[in-house]
Amino acid sequence: MTALLDFYSARLLVTFVSLVLLFILRYRTYRRLSQFRGPLSTGWLELWHIRAILSMRSHEWYREATDKYGSVTRVGPNDLITNSPDLLAHMSAVRSPYTRAAWYNRATRVEPGKDHLFSLLDEDTHTKRRQKMATAYSGKENTSLEPSIDLRVQQLIQLIRSKYLSSSNSKTPSKPMDLARKIQYFTLDVISYIGFGQAFGDLEADDDVHEYIAASEAGLNLMVYVCGLGLTPLIQWPPIARLLGPSEKDKSGHGKMMRTARRLINDRIDKLETSKEKGNDMTASFLHRGLTKDEIFTEAYLQILAGSDTTATAIRCLMLHIVSNPRVYNMLQAEIDNAFNDGLVQADGIISEAVASTLPYLQAVIREGLRIHPPITDVVPKVVPKGGDSLIVDGVLTHFPEGTNIGYDVFGLARRRDLFGEDVDVFRPERWISKELSDGDSERMEVMRRTTEMIFGHGKYQCLGKPIAWMEMHKVIFELLRYFDWSIAKPATPWRSINCIGIFLQQELWMVVTERNVELLLG
């Protein structure tokens, strides 16, 4: 009893000592990165960074921070973000000793304990897995890649024609179409065919057939809180994961989607193994390169998310900026009409990737669209290697202590005034037209190109699906403006868009679409 009374009497002393020790630990953490400026409290607490993620506008928070505090900004006790192209390229170089940060990449696992290319932290395993998968994405073993995309573009055009055309007659009611949803149907059908050898059929049904979109929206909204509050280790702890995580027995949501994906993959693998056919899709390529069934499932499921949501965002953003800029709209449509008139594309065919890549204004519009609104803004932090690292950033030799997380401010990178000019917030494709630059600016143009390419990652972390995304953007933008005229149905509120740890969820991009008489226009 006396001991309890003594302890009770000493409670103030115990509390005081505990607070002193806590302050000392926090101060040591603060001092490690004290050379880097950042918003108030970021050297002591995670609160600012948590709020940025939970705001679902993290790309804007990061951009505002680096604009105010510099190319390398502190956003947490052990976290920095950067919009320096030199530092970003250095961290992701093929032989870079930097590694991925667990708090972010591990949160993207499909199943606890099972990694895909994006969640892998071990660099050797990541490199070997990437080498096995690269050929499938390049199209060398996937000869049906471009024809399969052409077919989905044709289905998208047919869907618009059959159900969503408005009349140019002012007395006839318009029929607004949610382009955001139709574009996601398109990208889902593309990636499911490429990955599974069988399209989901969303365009044909004009519906979210497997309820993927609903599952994705629910899952990404949840991931904001899991990642933002640092709950990944808890949520992915097997007992908790079995209790709260998705199950393939679920009747809806990610569990149902996982069950559908596994069935499609198993059916495809069984067919390949029993028929002994070589196959020309990604599943066949992965199988031939030695990936196991579980690895193929995990990678294919990642494709659905990374390959459909991000490309859909890119196309939506392009269409919104094109349609809302009459000068750009008219110039691009004129280039498209001239390409048709010059015989570069057939009347009943889809433009080829080879031809699309030669159209200068189309290229400029797409590059500017990716710059003005990058389709993915994941922070993908890298960890400073053992012993720390030093690099010249904006002309100043900067030291980064070992173990520091350095994230990617892609929105800020794409709006750097020293690279893209003072009008970085303006959608102006002409900045990409070489003939408007003097000879001395050719190097600057190359820097601009390399910088925007970082939207797809860089070096050992560059997105394998980049060629597929470019092909989809080329074809869809060209054909939608070739056959139809577009206007925004609700200019004051053109869409709903939120950022879920780097992936955008966009809805209600309502457009009014009318048919163009191409033959009459071209005479």
From TrEMBL:
SUPFAM superfamilies: Cytochrome P450. Gene3D superfamilies: Cytochrome P450 (1.10.630.10). Its cofactor is heme. The chain crosses the membrane at residues 6-27. It comes from the Eukaryota. Heme binds at residue 463. InterPro entries: Cyt_P450, Cyt_P450_E_grp-I, Cyt_P450_sf, Cytochrome_P450_monoxygenase. The keyword Transmembrane applies. GO terms for molecular function: heme binding; iron ion binding; monooxygenase activity; oxidoreductase activity, acting on paired donors, with incorporation or reduction of molecular oxygen. Keywords: Heme, Iron, Membrane, Metal-binding, Transmembrane, Transmembrane helix, Virulence. It holds the Pfam family p450. Pathway: Hormone biosynthesis. This is Cytochrome P450 monooxygenase ABA1. It comes from Periconia digitata.
